[in-house]
Amino acid sequence: MVQQEDSYDFRPVTEKDLPMIAGWLAGPHVAEWWDDPEIEIAQIREHIDSISVEPLIIELDGKPIGYLQTYDPHLEDGHPYADQPFGTLGIDLSIGRPELVGLGHGSAIVRQFVEQLFDEGVPRVIIDPDPANVRAIRAYEKAGFVAFDTRTSEYGPALMMARDATQEPN
C-alpha cells in the first residue's frame, strides 16, 4: 500500500524513455485502455517537443513507475474537450509497473500532481477514463474528481471527470 511519506517526482519524457514506455503499453493492465503501443509511442515522440501536450515520467524513489501526460484542449483545433473553461488542463496516466497496481498509487499520484497544477494557477483539471475502467474511476474519485458527463469522441467512450481548484479535496 501507499505510505504516507510516498512522494512522486514528474520529469519530462526523453527519447531514451520510449522503449520503457512501449514495454508498459504492451502490458495487459495498460494495453486494455490505451491504443496500439506503436501508435502511442509515435504520438508520445511527437509530444516531446509539443506545446499542447506534456509527456512525463512518474518516479517513486528515483525509479520510473509510470507515464503521465497533460494537455490543453484549447491548443488543438477541434479538440472534443475545448468546451471546458479556459485554463483547464487534461491529464492521462498509467502505472507501468504491474506490481504497483491496486495499491493506491493511482489516486496518490493524481492527488499530488493536481495539487501542483493548482499551485501553478490551473483552475480546473479533467480526466476521461473509459466508463468500463472501474479501477481508474475509483482512483480518480479518491483523488477528488467528480463525474460530470459521458461522451464518445475519436478517443472512444469517456466518463468526463473534473476537479476544480476551488473544490476541497476529499
Description:
There is one protein chain. By secondary structure, the protein is α+β, with helices and mostly antiparallel strands. It has five helices and seven strands. A seven-stranded mixed β-sheet has the order 1-2-3-4-5-7-6, covered by helices on one side. Helix 1 (18-26) runs antiparallel to helix 3 and helix 4 (105-119) packs across helix 5. The longest helix is centred in the middle third of the chain and has 15 residues, at 105-119. The protein is globular and about 35 Å long.
Indicate the topology.
Elements: E1 8-12, H1 18-26, H2 28-31, H3 37-47, E2 53-60, E3 63-71, E4 89-95, H4 105-119, E5 124-127, H5 134-142, E6 146-153, E7 156-164
Parallel strand pairs: 4-5
Antiparallel strand pairs: 1-2, 2-3, 3-4, 5-7, 6-7
Helix pairs in contact: 1-3, 4-5
Instruction: Report the order of strands and helices.
Output: EHHHEEEHEHEE
Oligomer: single chain
Beta content: 25-35%
- Overall 3D geometry? globular
Structural class: alpha+beta
The overall average pLDDT, rounded, is 89
Strand order of the largest sheet: 1-2-3-4-5-7-6
Biggest sheet record: 7 strands, mixed
The value of Rg in angstroms is 15 Å
Low-confidence stretches: none
The number of helical segments is: 5
State the total count of DSSP E strands: 7
The N- to C-terminal Cα distance equals 19 Å
Helix content: 25-40%
